[in-house]
Amino acid sequence: MTILRVGSTRYTLNTAMLSLHSTMLRDSIKEEESGILLCPDWWDVGASVDVFIDWIYTRRFPSTYRPWGIEPPQPLDGDACVRIYIFAWQIDASELRAAIECKAVSFFVQNDYYAPFDTVNLAFSALPHEHVMLELLVDAHCRSFRDDAQGKWEMQQESKLPGVMRRYARVGARKELRASDYLGHRSVKKRKRWEEEEAVESVESGDGE
Questions:
Q1: What domain of life (predicted)?
Q2: Of 32, 50, 169, 175, whose Cβ has the fewest other Cβ atoms within 10 Å?
């Protein structure tokens, strides 16, 4: 067994399971003889560790989570999906990354929603500049952002993202997001499944008439 220490929280976990689902953890376990991994501060990001542990044992995502220990539990929304994706990217958990990416794309495409500025800032600082997740965040913002919805805190966060805001301006408003646009790097089979699901949703909503 391996013990993960994240801040004051300790997780006792199956070593083989951790090694299987994270390249970074596998390498760390090999180097650490005590069996205790002291995880850096960035691990404690909105309950991503709890979601990761649930996923490696059940291969399913919980419907709710507790960001920073907040009660009551919150829905696993687009903001949470992005943060979990960043966490999966940083620990090199490829299967978790692929699974939460599909969930994030689905959430943003199906809902009139854009991620908070602090999450966008985190994504742009953690992921490669041309990453498809950043494209999704920008497009969702362009579709759903309303200036009159901003409060003082949001304006302060926006001021930290001049490069991102210029990119928003270049992209311009978009009326519709398609899941297949953000999963093009996935297999042809997966892309076809998404396109078929989108076609069904379009007919059911009346858009295909």
A1: Eukaryota
A2: 175
pLDDT in tens, 151-168: 555 555 555 555 555 656
- Per domain, the residue ranges of the chain are 2-150+160-191
pTM, two decimal places: 0.74
- Would you say 159 and 117 are in contact if contact means Cβ atoms under 8 Å apart? no
Q: Taking the CB of residue 60, how many other CB atoms lie within 10 A of it? A: 9
Report the candidate in 164, 126, 111, 163 with the shortest Cα–Cα distance to residue 42. Answer: 126
The gap between the terminal CA atoms of the chain, to the nearest Å, is 57
**pLDDT, position 106:** 85
